[in-house]
Amino acid sequence: MTTQPLRVGPLTRRRLEERARQDAEALRGAPAPEAGAPPTVAALQARANAYARREEQRFHRHVRRELTEHRLLTAAVRTDLDAFDDRLDALPPAERDHARIAVGDGPAYAELRRLERRIARRHRRAEELAALIHARFTAARLRAARHFDRSDEKIAVYWGAYRAALPRDAVDRDPAREGTPELRRSDWLTTRTDALEHWQGGTADGQA
Q1: What is the pLDDT along the chain (208 residues), one digit of tens a residue?
Q2: Which of 83, 111, 148, 177 has its CA 20 to 30 A from that of 52?
Q3: Where do the structural domains in the chain lie, given as residue ranges?
Q4: Three-state SS across 69-135?
Q5: How far is residue 9's CA from residue 161's CA, in Å, rounded to a whole number?
Q6: What are the Basic and acidic residues biased-composition ranges (predicted)?
Q7: What is the DSSP letter of 28?
Q8: CA 130: distance to chain centroid?
């Protein structure tokens, strides 16, 4: 749930209450309880799912270049680290300490220092990209979560009116209708993955 207060406006409230009475009236005299959630609840779930999906796709579109650059930088850093280790292993054990590398003469030490600088530079850039991607991912998740929260409030209004208008025989035939339905959040809103993990395991829509 988001921390900002939400409120269902009077026009929306009246519309939801009217739909609740219509949905409840449709059950009057029915031979058996209808399967699944009432149509209004199902519609709110579908709209919330669609909104979350649009936010997910928009995130992928807006950070496609940054995500690709981060992936390439991460691979380049791994390659540079392997090259650094290979060149370090080629030195005598007594000459492998950091102080010696910092002041050592010759092409081997110069190459090690060059690799160190490049690794540090690429690592800084990768961290900058990760921070930017995470910020945009968090914003997308918050927008989607807030939409679900608004939908939950609409369901609470709807369900109160629905329960009040529901025929007694329908309640007796389906006690499960006693509880207020809860919307199912999209997986990317409930898992604890970060933006990079989400992209790496995402759908083809989000892949570069």
Answers
A1: 455 556 788 899 999 999 999 988 887 766 555 556 789 999 999 999 999 999 999 999 999 999 999 999 999 999 999 999 999 999 998 888 888 888 888 899 999 999 999 999 999 999 999 999 999 999 999 999 999 999 999 999 999 999 888 877 665 555 555 677 889 998 888 877 666 666 665 543 444 3
A2: 177
A3: 12-200
A4: HHHHHHHHHHHHHHHHHHHHHCCCHHHCCHHHHHHCCCHHHHHHHHHHHHHHHHHHHHHHHHHHHHH
A5: 15
A6: 14-26
A7: T
A8: 15
